[in-house]
């Protein structure tokens, strides 16, 4: 019996190792590099924010986030981001549906325009919005220094997220499944609710999470249009910057930690919702 027959086949051994839950050397190295990179970019900075926020103790943290001006900024930011996310879930899914299922003149141009908020610097977006909806608006619509301006700025920068997460999933759905459901007497609404929606829900939830997270952290697109008026149009990103400029890092870190906790909670809730929808579907 030769040594070749005694030695296990390496690919087969690797497959058995993977099935057994053990990492190969290459997989272990890749995992280590990935975790190191993730730690340097995400875990360590987030931990530093939480540690800085806790340096003043619980009383200092509570005083920072319950300050009347700070609390107003948090309510405005989170409430507006939540409302914008709901709009994006509906309109983003609708736009993705139109782009995938319909053919019309200018479709390619619309595909490009949707990605403009990704490519455009946010301060430039703010200048564009101010030109269109500011005191010298060519449209005759002046919403600067109002909460509507904050809502509009959030809508502009978060538009592509749901569209771009739903569109590829919708494109991969098999039309024959829908045709089979229709042939069995299912209505269009039933087909959408029982077949299409469960398939799209994970993508919608992912886009919604990205939309919300981008909204609560937005600064550049609204700093010119909203006016940053305390108690009225000031958002948390502006409030954090003001605290840093006043050399109050503990307060800035406390507000950032609150936003981090809210964003994490929203992501968890969206994950639970999409799992239940998929299971019921």
UniProtKB/TrEMBL annotation:
<keyword id="KW-0813">Transport</keyword>
<protein>
    <recommendedName>
        <fullName>Sulfate transport system permease protein CysT</fullName>
    </recommendedName>
</protein>
<dbReference type="InterPro" id="IPR000515">
    <property type="entry name" value="MetI-like"/>
</dbReference>
<feature type="transmembrane region" description="Helical">
    <location>
        <begin position="73"/>
        <end position="100"/>
    </location>
</feature>
<comment type="function">
    <text>Part of the ABC transporter complex (TC 3.A.1.6.1) involved in sulfate/thiosulfate import.</text>
</comment>
<keyword id="KW-1133">Transmembrane helix</keyword>
<dbReference type="InterPro" id="IPR005667">
    <property type="entry name" value="Sulph_transpt2"/>
</dbReference>
<feature type="transmembrane region" description="Helical">
    <location>
        <begin position="252"/>
        <end position="273"/>
    </location>
</feature>
<keyword id="KW-0472">Membrane</keyword>
<comment type="similarity">
    <text>Belongs to the binding-protein-dependent transport system permease family. CysTW subfamily.</text>
</comment>
<dbReference type="InterPro" id="IPR011865">
    <property type="entry name" value="CysT_permease"/>
</dbReference>
<feature type="transmembrane region" description="Helical">
    <location>
        <begin position="195"/>
        <end position="216"/>
    </location>
</feature>
<feature type="transmembrane region" description="Helical">
    <location>
        <begin position="29"/>
        <end position="53"/>
    </location>
</feature>
<comment type="function">
    <text>Part of the ABC transporter complex CysAWTP (TC 3.A.1.6.1) involved in sulfate/thiosulfate import. Probably responsible for the translocation of the substrate across the membrane.</text>
</comment>
<comment type="subunit">
    <text>The complex is composed of two ATP-binding proteins (CysA), two transmembrane proteins (CysT and CysW) and a solute-binding protein (CysP).</text>
</comment>
<feature type="transmembrane region" description="Helical">
    <location>
        <begin position="112"/>
        <end position="134"/>
    </location>
</feature>
<keyword id="KW-0764">Sulfate transport</keyword>
<feature type="transmembrane region" description="Helical">
    <location>
        <begin position="146"/>
        <end position="163"/>
    </location>
</feature>
<feature type="domain" description="ABC transmembrane type-1">
    <location>
        <begin position="74"/>
        <end position="270"/>
    </location>
</feature>
<dbReference type="Pfam" id="PF00528">
    <property type="entry name" value="BPD_transp_1"/>
</dbReference>
<keyword id="KW-0812">Transmembrane</keyword>
<dbReference type="InterPro" id="IPR035906">
    <property type="entry name" value="MetI-like_sf"/>
</dbReference>
């Amino acid at each position: 019996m030769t040594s070749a027959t005694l030695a296990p086949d390496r690919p087969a051994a690797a497959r058995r190792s993977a099935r057994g839950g053990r990492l190969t050397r290459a997989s272990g190295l890749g995992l280590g590099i990935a975790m190191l990179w993730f730690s340097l970019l995400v875990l360590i900075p987030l931990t530093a924010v939480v540690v800085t926020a806790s340096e003043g103790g619980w009383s200092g943290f509570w005083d920072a986030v319950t300050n009347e001006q700070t609390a107003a900024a948090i309510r405005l930011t989170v409430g507006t981001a939540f409302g914008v996310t709901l709009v994006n879930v509906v309109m983003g899914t609708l736009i993705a549906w139109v782009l995938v299922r319909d053919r019309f003149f200018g479709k390619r141009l619309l595909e490009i325009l949707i990605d403009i908020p990704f490519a455009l610097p946010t301060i430039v977006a703010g200048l564009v919005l101010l030109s269109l909806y500011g005191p010298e608006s060519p449209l005759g619509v002046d919403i600067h220094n109002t909460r509507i301006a904050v809502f509009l700025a959030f809508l502009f920068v978060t538009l592509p997220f749901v569209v771009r997460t739903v569109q590829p999933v919708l494109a991969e759905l098999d039309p024959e499944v829908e045709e089979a459901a229709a042939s069995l007497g299912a209505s269009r609404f039933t087909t959408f609710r029982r077949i299409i929606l469960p398939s799209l829900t994970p993508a919608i939830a992912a886009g919604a999470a990205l939309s919300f997270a981008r909204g609560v952290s937005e600064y550049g697109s609204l700093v010119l249009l909203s006016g940053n008026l305390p108690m009225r149009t000031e958002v948390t990103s502006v409030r954090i910057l003001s605290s840093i400029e006043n050399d109050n890092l503990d307060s800035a870190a406390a507000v950032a930690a609150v936003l981090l906790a809210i964003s994490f909670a929203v992501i968890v809730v969206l994950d639970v919702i999409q799992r239940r929808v998929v299971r019921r579907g």
